[in-house]
């Protein structure tokens, strides 16, 4: 398994690259890397083409996976499928960089569910009936299914929700005290108190 930090968004509402924002003297991307690395997993960072140079100044180039424009998909799904194409045999533990409050213990819990319940394509948290697809484990076999759909022109929507509709999903209910871990930040005004 490899950890994938999704940093390839446009950050248009934030006005600056979210993965390179700092919290407690570390970039959000590095904070996310450290949380997955605590599970003793290798970690790569998913970026878009325009971000590569900026991220290469902060991280080793070998640790960056650039979105494959040839996949012709958009959003987080592009980052996940690009990572899959780059590491086709690896199951991926995906974490968005804009979840800076994510707790390492919750990632460990997710990983343990994956180890204890083999046979699913995806493992993720369910927050009041809504999947949390940007803190999840995607199994290589399931991602291959999605990529084959893309190649056949059957990936009619590029949302993570659409992808999950085509996978067998192991859902873990989010406890009340864990909900704040899934808070993502999209605008400067939301950073107050962080």
UniProtKB/TrEMBL annotation:
InterPro entries the UniProt entry points to: MobA-like_NTP_Trfase, Molybde_CF_guanTrfase, Nucleotide-diphossugar_trans
Keyword field: Cytoplasm, GTP-binding, Magnesium, Metal-binding, Molybdenum cofactor biosynthesis, Nucleotide-binding, Transferase
Name the record gives this protein: Molybdopterin-guanine dinucleotide biosynthesis protein A
Pfam families xrefs: NTP_transf_3
Top-level taxonomic group: Bacteria
Residues covered by the MobA-like NTP transferase domain: 3-152
Coiled coil (residue ranges): none
BP GO annotations: Mo-molybdopterin cofactor biosynthetic process
Keyword hit for Transport: no
Molecular function terms, GO-annotated: GTP binding; metal ion binding; nucleotidyltransferase activity
Key word Metal-binding present: yes
UniProt source species: Lacibacter cauensis
């Amino acid at each position: 398994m490899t950890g994938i930090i999704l940093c390839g968004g446009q950050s248009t509402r934030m006005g600056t690259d979210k993965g390179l924002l700092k919290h407690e003297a570390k970039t959000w991307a590095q904070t996310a890397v450290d949380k997955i690395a605590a599970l003793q997993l290798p970690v790569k960072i998913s970026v878009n083409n325009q971000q590569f140079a900026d991220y290469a100044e902060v991280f080793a180039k070998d640790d960056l996976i650039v979105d494959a424009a040839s996949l012709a998909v958009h959003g987080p799904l592009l980052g996940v499928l690009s990572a899959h194409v780059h590491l086709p045999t690896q199951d991926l533990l995906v974490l968005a960089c804009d979840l800076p409050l994510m707790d390492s213990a919750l990632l460990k819990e997710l990983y343990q569910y994956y180890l204890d319940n083999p046979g699913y394509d995806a493992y993720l948290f369910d927050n009041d009936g809504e999947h949390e697809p940007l803190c999840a484990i995607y199994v290589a076999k399931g991602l291959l299914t999605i990529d084959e759909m893309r190649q056949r022109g059957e990936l009619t929507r590029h949302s993570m929700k659409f992808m999950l509709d085509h996978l067998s999903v192991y859902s873990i209910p989010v406890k009340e005290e864990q909900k704040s871990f899934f808070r993502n930040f999209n605008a400067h005004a939301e950073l107050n108190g962080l």
